[in-house]
């Protein structure tokens, strides 16, 4: 179900070529790369900072860096790891700057505390809203990023650790907490059904 | 001792594999890790249950429509905004008001009525000495400042002075024609702001005639402002 073309050798070779062309100043190739990544970046950024109103701006910021730094891309990592790494840092910066979003980090807390009790307003929210939306909202930015990169982008934990610039075990720990929360919400929904 | 060690090793291995399940699901594990997980879940019921659950979560996530998620996230923000600004939309609560705080809707209105009535009464009480004073000392208060609304008849020669501003800077001849049409003559101006002071008639001209002249001036297409000078600010 994950778009396997993201990580196929053929796709990677194509992206490497486009980056090399962009480094040489080929605007057409850069535009092609932009179109190739637009949807992917849109989803990626949205799942991290949850604010759609600045996504296009962040995408353009990311792709501007790609255009400017295309010459420095050393091909040691996948093109997607490089581009998503830039997008992750930009999204994180944007999420921190956003004053609208409250700090809901549960990274170092017991996720069970965040599970709604029966009768609380979150329960009713589950009834009339999408469970996934409610559950994702309960994750910290970092946890959402790991979920996004694993379940939406289909990346390996080593790539995620590279993108997030953290140890692999941190990625696993973030995923551990995130999946607990997601599973609890999902189970609650199933029990209702 | 040996059994404890084996148990701990198994426990450690179980945890390791439990952590890898999301990447087993998204099929990004390498062949070695993939085989280890695959073998483990054959015998570990806990991991099998977890795998099944996470696969369902993964399936749900994959099926989620991005546009729908965007709209839901937007709506959540809007909802939060509505909920955090109750004072701006007290008439329209997003969620039902708490029953222990508000019993009936008219209770709010009644409290509001009492509050504002008390405020008005207090202001009236405070203002009463000034009101009473003004009733008795009105003649002595004939100062130079007067608002248009409170303008009274005056016998001095400034009561028929009108300030005029013309549109599109008409020439002197045109201005003279307009001013003459209301029996006026320029006594001052134009100021740097283009204001002319025009005396209507003479000292015998009554206020009705001056008012008529002002109305005629205002009707003129070349006049953008015509007002009695008396009572206006001295600023030009």
From TrEMBL, chain A:
Q: Report the coiled-coil segments.
A: none
Q: Which GO terms describe its biological process?
A: DNA-templated transcription initiation
> Which key words are in the record?
Sigma factor, Transcription, Transcription regulation
Single GO term (MF):
DNA binding
The record's listing under InterPro entries reads: RNA_pol_sigma-70-like, RNA_pol_sigma-70_dom, RNA_pol_sigma70_r4_t2, RNA_pol_sigma_r2, RNA_pol_sigma_r3/r4-like, WH-like_DNA-bd_sf
Q: What residue stretches are annotated with the RNA polymerase sigma factor 70 region 4 type domain? A: 130-181
Checking Gene3D superfamilies in the record gives:
1.10.1740.10, Winged helix-like DNA-binding domain superfamily/Winged helix DNA-binding domain
To which protein family does this belong? Belongs to the sigma-70 factor family. ECF subfamily.
Identify this protein by name: RNA polymerase subunit sigma-24
Q: Which organism is it from?
A: Nitrosomonas supralitoralis
Question: What phylogenetic lineage does the species belong to?
Answer: Bacteria, Pseudomonadati, Pseudomonadota, Betaproteobacteria, Nitrosomonadales
Automatic annotation (TrEMBL), chain B:
Q: What is this protein called?
A: Zinc-finger
List membrane-spanning regions.
Answer: 116-136
On the tree of life, the source organism's domain of life is Bacteria
- Please provide the record's keywords in A-Z order: Membrane, Transmembrane, Transmembrane helix
- Note the InterPro entries from the entry: Anti_sigma_zinc_sf (IPR041916)
């Amino acid at each position: 179900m994950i778009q396997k073309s993201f990580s196929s050798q053929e796709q990677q070779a194509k992206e490497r070529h486009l980056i090399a062309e962009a480094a040489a100043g080929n605007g057409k190739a850069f535009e092609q790369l932009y179109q190739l990544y637009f949807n992917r970046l849109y989803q990626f950024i949205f799942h991290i900072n949850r604010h759609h109103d600045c996504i296009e701006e962040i995408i353009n910021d990311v792709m501007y860096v790609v255009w400017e730094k295309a010459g420095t891309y050393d091909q040691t990592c996948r093109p997607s790891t490089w581009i998503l790494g830039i997008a992750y840092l930009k999204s994180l910066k944007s999420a921190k700057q956003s004053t609208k979003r409250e700090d809901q980090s549960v990274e170092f807390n017991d996720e069970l505390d965040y599970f709604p009790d029966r009768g609380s307003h979150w329960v009713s929210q589950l009834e009339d809203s999408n469970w996934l939306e409610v559950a994702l909202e309960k994750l910290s930015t970092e946890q959402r990023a790991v979920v996004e990169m694993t379940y939406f982008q289909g990346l390996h934990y080593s790539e995620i650790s590279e993108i997030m610039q953290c140890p692999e075990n941190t990625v696993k720990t973030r995923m551990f907490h995130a999946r607990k929360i997601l599973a609890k919400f999902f189970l609650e929904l199933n029990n209702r059904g | 001792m040996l059994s404890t060690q084996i148990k701990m090793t198994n426990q450690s291995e179980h945890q390791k594999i439990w952590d890898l399940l999301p990447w087993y699901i998204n099929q990004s594990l390498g062949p070695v890790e993939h085989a280890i997980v695959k073998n483990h879940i054959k015998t570990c019921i806990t991991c099998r249950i977890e795998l099944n659950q996470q696969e369902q979560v993964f399936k749900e996530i994959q099926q989620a429509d991005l546009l729908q998620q965007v709209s839901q996230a937007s709506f959540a923000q809007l909802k939060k905004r509505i909920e955090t600004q109750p004072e701006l939309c007290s008439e329209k609560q997003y969620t039902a008001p708490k029953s222990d705080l508000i019993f009936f809707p008219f209770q709010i209105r009644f409290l509001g009525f009492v509050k504002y009535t008390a405020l008005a009464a207090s202001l009236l009480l405070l203002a009463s000495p000034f009101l009473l004073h003004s009733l008795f000392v009105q003649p002595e208060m004939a100062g130079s400042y007067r608002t248009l609304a409170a303008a009274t008849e005056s016998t001095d020669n400034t009561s028929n002075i009108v300030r005029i501003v013309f549109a599109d800077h008409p020439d002197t001849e045109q201005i003279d024609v307009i001013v003459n049409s209301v029996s006026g003559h320029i006594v001052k101006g134009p100021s740097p702001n283009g204001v002319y002071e025009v005396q209507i008639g003479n000292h015998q001209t009554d206020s009705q005639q001056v008012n008529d002249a002002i109305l005629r001036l205002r009707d003129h297409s070349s006049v953008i402002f015509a007002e009695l000078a008396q009572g206006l600010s001295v600023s030009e």
